[in-house]
């Protein structure tokens, strides 16, 4: 990868689009902390409810787990210094976002479109468009459609979560497609916030051995001293 250029924060509002609770911290926690510290209006949009991570658990059925994950996201934002920052929980089904053309999709698109219009973001952080996780791609598509309806065009940067571990060669950004930018961040702040997502760290659900657990390699990769974002190349 070419050496990323340093990312400069804008002077206006920031919108962070997180497909699941925990992506905000893993992908953008450092930027959220920096934006809030600078006094920028920072809004985090959680797209899915995260309720599909432990489908085998009897103690944590989907609705209970979804509520828990929302509380974990609230706590993570607080630890990032963003406790007072506005956030929206869209509560679409984890691992099953409604297809384009469905009433549920239209409703979600309307909500995101209004959010973009009301916030007027100068910078939008989206999940990587070809992330191997389908919810990440669907969240990118939903937000991109809403942004296309906005009166102004904000700067859009994309962050990859599962690309390096699970991506096929064609999933990666082409050199003529995207250029990387990086932001120096505090690994300690990110890791502190990530610990709020106990359900994803194997610390909460005890009756689903096949449930999702964030592995140490993933955590190390995504909580280092810099966050990498991808900016579309000028055409
Ligand atoms: Zn995710």
From TrEMBL:
One of its GO terms (molecular function) is hydrolase activity, acting on carbon-nitrogen (but not peptide) bonds, in linear amides. InterPro entries: GlcNAc_PI_deacetylase-related, LmbE-like_dom_sf. This is PIG-L family deacetylase. It comes from Amaricoccus solimangrovi.
């Amino acid at each position: 990868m070419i050496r990323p250029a340093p990312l400069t924060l804008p002077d206006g509002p920031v919108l962070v689009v997180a497909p699941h609770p925990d992506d905000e911290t893993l992908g953008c926690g450092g930027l959220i902390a920096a934006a809030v510290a600078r006094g920028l209006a920072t809004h985090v949009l959680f797209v899915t409810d995260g309720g599909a991570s432990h489908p085998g658990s009897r103690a944590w059925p989907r609705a209970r787990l979804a509520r828990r994950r929302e509380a974990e996201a609230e706590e993570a934002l607080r630890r990032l210094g963003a406790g007072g920052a506005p956030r929206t929980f869209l509560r679409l089904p984890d691992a099953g976002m409604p297809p384009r053309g469905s009433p549920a999709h239209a409703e979600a698109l309307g909500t995101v479109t209004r959010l973009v219009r009301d916030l007027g973001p100068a910078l939008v952080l989206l999940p990587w468009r070809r992330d191997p996780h389908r919810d990440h791609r669907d969240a990118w598509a939903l937000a991109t459609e809403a942004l296309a309806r906005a009166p102004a065009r904000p700067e859009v940067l994309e962050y990859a979560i599962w690309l390096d571990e699970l991506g096929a060669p064609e999933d990666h950004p082409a050199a003529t497609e995207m250029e990387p930018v990086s932001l120096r961040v505090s690994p300690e702040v990110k890791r502190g916030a990530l610990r709020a997502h106990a359900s994803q760290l194997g610390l909460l659900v005890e009756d689903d051995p096949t449930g999702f657990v964030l592995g140490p390699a993933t955590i190390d990769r995504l909580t280092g001293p810099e966050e990498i974002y991808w900016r579309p190349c000028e055409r």
